[in-house]
Amino acid sequence: MRLILASTSPYRRELLARLRLPFDVVRPEVDETPAPDESPATLALRLARAKAAAVAGAHPDAWVIGSDQVADLDGAPLGKSGGRDAAIAQLSAMSARAVVFRTAMSVQRGDVAFDAVDCTRVRFRKLALDEIERYVDAEQPFDCAGSFKSEGFGIALFDAIETQDPTALIGLPMIATARLLRAAGFALP
Q1: Burial 84-120 (b: 16+ CB within 10 A, else e)
Q2: Predicted TM-score (pTM) above 0.85
Q3: Could you report the per-residue pLDDT of 42-68, keeping only the tens digit for each?
Q4: Is 68 a catalytic residue?
Q5: What tens digit of pLDDT does each residue of 143-155 get?
Q6: All domains of the chain, ordered by start, with CATH?
Q7: Which pLDDT score is estimated for 66?
Q8: What Rg value do the Cα atoms of the chain yield, rounded?
Q9: One of 68, 72, 118, 165 is an active-site residue; which one?
Q10: CB proximity list for 34: less than 8 A, separation 6 or greater
Q11: Nearest to 100 by CA among 81, 83, 80, 76
């Protein structure tokens, strides 16, 4: 069976490779603008489904994985910062607070879809502006929801991570991925 990852994220590609299944990578063309009053969980799942569907439509013979992550700060979605000033603002807003990261995924082929949403709670320690600036300048996490890389230097920003799947915070919850791929018929241990 053919498998496609509907993402050009190097983080998701590296995680999916852990399952030792051959897969292709295709960039999904999806507008990621939140709808008015859309909750972070709803946004993450809508985008994961839309990314999988966008690629699946062009590759009807393949199973397609779409994924998206949205930070939930008191019900308000935080996505990728895209630049230094926005990253500093995001991390400043999360300082000394708990933030829930909603990582959604969808595995689709034709009219069949299997979905999952992981919730990971991150407790940020109190961060001084100079710490935030040093971190942002060192790691430049502009392509990450919440403006940090937990698999890198960003781990120093936290007091705790509460999760059922440590890979979810990196961008693709591998426990759910394996479960959904088994449901789609892939042979995994």
Answers
A1: eebbbebbebbeeeebbbbbbbbbbbeeebbbbbbbb
A2: yes
A3: 999 999 999 999 999 999 999 999 999
A4: yes
A5: 888 899 888 899 9
A6: 2-183 (3.90.950.10)
A7: 98
A8: 16
A9: 68
A10: 43, 77, 79
A11: 76
